[in-house]
Structures are given as structure tokens and as C-alpha cells.
Amino acid sequence: MRQNPSFTLASEEGVKRLIREHPWMTIVSMTDAAGLVASHYPVLLDEDASGIELLTHVGRPDEVVHELGRHEVMAIVQGPHGYISPGWYDANPAVPTWNFVTAHLYGTPEVLGADENLRVLEALVDHFEDPMPEPRRMRGTAENSAYADRIATGTVGLRIPITRFVAKNKMSQNRPAETVDRIIAELEGDGPYANPALAGEMRRTHEALRAARA
To answer: Is residue 20 within a helix (H) or strand (E), and if so which, with residue range?
Structure first.
């Protein structure tokens, strides 16, 4: 991903927030047998790790297809993104653009044993079920627990310690404040490119910029 100093997201905490809020990732491997391979899985942050460590699982035989544990992988996380019309700027000539926040994270996966894989699966289920009015736990009943033990054999748990990342947060930082306000208003409106999530990300970015300048 080509970097631009105006849009670089260098903060480890900023990347962690992105992962927490958007835990569906694309995992890309360059394999000896099949060349480039990509799969898509939910991930959790290991909140006890000192750096960025991802916890996830893959369904068999993805661990073989990706040759997991043999090579570095790239995990891609994508936040809010959307089209920005030049009509939202001013009367001067301009071209359209796309605002987005994303990170490419690199590390070599560690394949987990059966017991730790079960713990990761249970943590994933709990994380996504917690907001539900009646959460369904992996070990909520004896029947659920037995079923989970059976299907867990078809999965492989992973820990991916991230050794480096490249992240970009492009939110019209190169535009004057009045233009930014117009873009946010359009994104919060009811037009064809309305995008409240992107508007919220722009507000967060520009409020942080204003606080840093103060």
C-alpha cells in the first residue's frame, strides 16, 4: 500500500481500535504450492499481549492451502470507506476520491493445539454473542458443548504475532475545514453516497487533528 505522510496511521493503538471495531479480516498468503491464496475470517485481539497479536481460526483444509506456519501472511482490516464527490468541495476544478481507513498487518502464524483452539473458538463466540439479548454460549448446555467439541476438529486455531504493519487513514485531511464540514454533512444526509459510518470516522479524525494543534 503506497503511503502518503498526510494519511499515515502510525499509531499502534489506532490500528488496535480499527481491528476491534472491524474484526472481519482477509488473510493473504504467498504459498509454494498455489501462489497467492486469500481467505476471510473473524479475528480477536489478544488484549494481554504487549504488541498486536491476532487470534483466529481457519476451517480445514485452509491451514494446508495457506501453508500456515511456514510463511509470513498479510492480514488486511478495512474500516469505513466511501466515494467523495468533487461537487462537495467548491467551484474550483477537482476530481473525485475515495476516503477509507485500512491496515495491512504482517506476521507468521503460530498453529495452536487442540485445547487452545477450543479456547479461541469459545472466546470468539462469547465476543460476538455478548451483545445479543440471549447469548448462545459454546458451552451453554451439555448438548452445545458436545456439538462444539465435534465441530472443533474441523478447525485450526491461530495466533498471529504482528511484526510490522502499514496503515492508512485517508479522511480529507488535505482539505480546509469548511470543505470537511460539507463532506461530513453530505455523508450524513440522504443522498446516493450517504455513509454515516464514514462521516463518524471523519469526525473522529478531524477532532483528533484539532486537539493535536491546540
So the answer is: helix 12-21
